[in-house]
Specification:
Layout (H helix, E strand, L loop, with lengths): L10 E4 L5 E4 L6 E5 L7 E6 L5 E8 L2 E6 L6 E5 L3 E3 L5 E6 L9 E7 L1 H12 L12 H9 L4 H22 L2 E3 L6 H8 L9 H29 L23 H10 L25
Antiparallel strand pairs: 1-2, 2-3, 3-10, 4-9, 4-11, 5-8, 5-10, 6-7, 6-9
Helix pairs in contact: 1-3, 3-5
Amino acid sequence: MDRTNTTSQSAFVLTGTASVSFDFSRLDHMRITIPAGSTWRVRYHWHQHDHGCKGIQTLKGQIVLWQSRYPSSGFPTIGGGVTRIFKPTERIGWWSKDWPKEPEELIVILDADETLYRNTCSATLYAELFPHLRSTPLWLRLFFAALALWPSAHQGLVRRMLWVQIQAIYHFHGYYEYHGGLPFASWWMFFHFLDWKAPPDWILQLQWKSQTLCSRVTQALCYWSGRMLFGMKGEYVEYTPKKKNDTHNMGQVMDEDKDDMSDGHTAAQHTNRTEKIAHPFTSARKP
């Protein structure tokens, strides 16, 4: 079985407790809708490249956005109508305000690496096909077949292979998710609990470097084990459309999106739209 081609697909809807929908029909940014009660969130991460994640803007709902430069610094932005520009190496994480019991859906515009999100969405949607793909090594396909009589173990292995695949895609695109680190700042506070001295910058730098190392090692191991043992890649041509060369009609993105929301439309109802729009953060003020 060949991998499912999703290059012409403009919308992805991931179901389950962590349900979320992605709309890629607009140029240069994506529209993400998190339904009420969903446990989906963007975990604490940072980017190696400038194009990894440039900015975010909320259209509906309440968001908690964490943006910081050091492991123990920064503060969350909470509320609606939030617009933020991100910088490379900044640590970012965001989710619904009352996650995971938010009574209102959250809709955001995200200016980020579309190829990364298209690959992770496609891999997640078609994870159940992995045991049958032609690219999956024969020994692994046979192992999956042997687990057919043990459904829970079969599903558990599929989930673990998907986790490895997602981390491999992250590594390939310079997207580093938090995977732990040494708590130098906590150790400092423990040994200075009497004088309440804040950790100096070099302590924070040590903690940051330990987090960076843990993330790089974890995701590199997933990437290379995925390539060498499981027939995986960090990016698939079946999931990656060719770059669009359309010209942009500047100054329309917010007007169009606000009109859509006033009409009561949802992200899923815009899957076939291909309006030419502006960069969504050209007029946003840096935080």
